[in-house]
Amino acid sequence: MSLLLGARLLLVEDDEIDARAFQRMLAALNRGVQCDVCVSIQEALKAWYSAGYDLIVADFQVKGQTALELLPLVHQTPIIIVTGAGDEELAVRLLKAGVTDYVVKDIQGHYLRKLPHTMEQALKQQRLKMAAEKSRRFALALADIALAMSSTLDLDRVLERIMTNLSAVVPHDRALLLRVENEMLVFQHGSGFSERWWDALSDYRVPHDAVEELHRILTSRQPVMRAWGSYAAHDALIGLQQNSAFLGVPLLIENEVIGILTVERLTPEASFQEDDAERLTAFATHAALALHNAHLYRAAQELATIEERQRLARDLHDSVTQTLFSATTIADAAQRMWQRDPASIQGELETLRELTQSALAEMRTLLLELKPEGLQQASIAALVRQLASALANRAQLDITLQLAEDITCPLPVKTALFRITQEAFNNIVKHAHASCVKVHLEQVKAGLRLAIVDDGVGFDPNDASLTSLGLRIMRERAAATNIQLTINGRPNHGTEIVAIWSARQQTKAGGRHE
After folding, report:
1. What's the confidence (pLDDT) of residue 511?
2. CA distances (Å), 354 to each of 141, 320, 360, in order?
3. Residue 117: which residues within 8 A CB-CB, separation 6 or more?
4. Orientation angle between helical segments 346-370 and 322-340, nearest 10 degrees
5. Cβ–Cβ contacts within 10 Å for residue 108, how many?
6. Is residue 378 scored above 60 in pLDDT?
7. Which residues are CB-neighbours of 463 under 8 A, at least 6 positions away?
8. CA torsion angle 231 234 235 241 (round to 10)
């Protein structure tokens, strides 16, 4: 099939006789070519920008100007220069500048015989150029999605990258990404929709068999195309008629449809082709994996959040809630005692003060965990002192602190020492039955040494309790930051925990100093 069939040509020619000869040549071809004639460079530029053309044929000299002024268009439209001057140097100059071809006029008009072939070749070259550019954009889009899979697990960023690259894969006016959720199709992301559509899209949730095209995609696991016409999916969604050409493909993970990706073209007769379906299917394979990984990561984050909330709830119940309950009971008792004997409540008020201080210390410790910037800003000495204050009020222990105030260390090391101290104090409350605790933090060489000693019941080094969760957490924290951790204990002789960190050893986690 001739590439000239139905082509739109722009002839730039100020010689009326040559222009008529060119038009007679096109009529003789009988290819349905549409040709517009401009008699000046300015007129030609205006026509191209307003309408666009498949090919430009221009005389080199047009009313004192040259066709070189058309060269900014050559990246989008092929240009053939026709001139009566047979200057080889000019021909080379034009071809280097990007002109597609160069034809020399002759008096007999023989050039018109070979011009159709030259135009065919120019259109063929342009088509190959566009196909190469399309393939290049497609390859870049696939590479970006592959990069998204390896560089981010954030669902919102993955969705944005899919929509950004989709235009390079299959040019379109609108796109929808739907998630399969049980028996429903749920809106995940979209592009190209007007503002009034977005409110409805955000609530888009319909049974997967409510829309014919989408149901076919789900059941066949194959692309579905529809020529330009009314698209039922949006009718079902909003109740508005919207003509479009439609292409949808499944998002598959191990042959299971996890979603559907659809694109639409709103220009009449701008239907999709088989190669569009092939490209979109290949793109959807990468997009499905990126989305699947992002959804798994978000689910893991949500699970971790729930587990952390449960842990904090247990801590609140074990410490602050019980302390506040005791404070409430004492306050009620003090109120009754005040009515009988005001002087007798002095001791109760002192106990109430200690309980509220204990609750405040516990809450500050929990807030440190909820607000990471607290760990970043506080020194390791301040963090240990905060934990010790909570421990003293919580367990009514005698705690001796010897803390060097000017010690600095990287944030990962500081965080690890905070967690080790916290876990050690938890073990003292739950298992040690101690009456006093000594905590010593000092600078040693190019690092620090933290020691926590209690006078509790101790433990047998051969006992299975050494593998308990609390001790394992301490060891893992230490190993991750190159902290040398030693746990010593003897039955009925208390326990000693020593953590030593040296700045000369490169930490595994890295981090900035306080």
Report:
1. 45
2. 64, 13, 10
3. none
4. 160
5. 8
6. yes
7. none
8. -70
For residue 70, give the nearest of 105, 44, 31, 106 by alpha carbon: 44
With beta carbons less than 8 A apart as the criterion, state whether 473 and 311 touch.
Answer: no
Helical spans, DSSP H, in 70-194: 88-97, 111-151, 155-169
- Structure tokens that stand for 200 in this block: 């409805």
Helix (H) or strand (E) holding 442: strand 436-444
pLDDT band at 76 (very low <50, low <70, confident <90, very high): confident
Where are the alpha helices (H) located in 316-399, listed in sequence order?
A: 322-340, 346-370, 372-377, 380-395
d(CA 284, CA 169) in angstroms, rounded, equals 10
Q: Which pair of tokens denotes residue 430? A: 């739950």
Which residue segments constitute the domains of the chain, with CATH numbers given? Answer: 8-134 (3.40.50.2300), 136-300 (3.30.450.40), 371-514 (3.30.565.10)
Dihedral angle over CA of 161, 163, 169, 174, nearest 10: -170
Distance CA 21, CA 109 (A): 8
pLDDT at res. 325: 65
Whole-model pTM? 0.42
What pLDDT was estimated at residue 497? Answer: 94
Cα dihedral across residues 76, 77, 82, 86: positive or negative: positive
**Amino acid present at 511:** G
Highest mean pLDDT among 43-47, 74-78, 236-240, 472-476: 43-47
d(CA 418, CA 383): 7
| pLDDT tens string 420-464 | 998 898 888 878 889 999 999 999 988 999 999 999 998 876 664
Q: Return d(Cα 274, Cα 240) in angstroms, integer.
A: 28
Neighbours of 103 (CB within 10 A): 17
pLDDT digits (tens, 9 = 90+) for 130-155: 777 776 776 666 666 666 555 566 77
Are the C-beta atoms of residues 203 and 221 closer than 8 Å to each other?
Answer: no
* Torsion from C-alpha of 161, 167, 172, 178, nearest 10 degrees: -20
Q: Which of 51, 39, 45, 43 is nearest to 79 (CA)?
A: 45
- CA distances to 35, 176, 284 from 145, in Å: 43, 17, 10
Residue of 304, 315, 165, 175 whose CA lies nearest to 244? 175
Q: Quote the DSSP letter at residue 170.
A: S
Strand blocks (E) in 120-193:
174-181, 184-191
Helix (H) / strand (E) containing 56: strand 55-59
Asked if 355 and 394 count as a contact pair (C-beta separation under 8 A), the reply is no
Please, which residues have CB within 8 angstroms of residue 148's CB and are 6 or more apart in sequence?
157, 158, 161, 162, 290
DSSP structural state of residue 430? I
Average the pLDDT over 387-407 and give the result: 85
3 state SS of 348: helix
